Give the backbone structure.
Amino acid sequence: MIQPSPFVFASVGAMLLVACSQFPSSTTESTRRGQAVYAKECAACHGASGEGAGPAAAALPVTPPNLTVLAQGNQGVFPRTYVRRFVIGVDPARDPASPMPDFATTGLRHVYPNGGADGEVLEAAFEDMLDYLEAIQK
């Protein structure tokens, strides 16, 4: 009988560690889809990891916020309703001069170049993105 080398065990262990560290163990298919939406719609400004240092951030008049600490500022709970309202552009505290796109009018233009069925944000894609943002909270 052939015995696997210690290298095989180490390699498999490393692959499992990487796979498990990408998201919490409760990752759903929605979170994975949300990561794709985030990568296309948000990462240019907020960075691939959500920490606010995307390639387009330097050209903005304000630094994009670190999206991985939103729960920290809300007693450890991801502020889903607030984030939804802010991103869609209906939060009354939102500065109308903000460089943040108003996704209620622009739609998810990178994911769906022609918008959703009616040129609007598809609710399922938006929920997936919120699931992803919740999953990356520190």
Q: What stands out?
A: DSSP finds six helices and no strands in the chain. Confidence is low (pLDDT under 50) at residues 3-25. The first helix runs from residue 6 to 22.
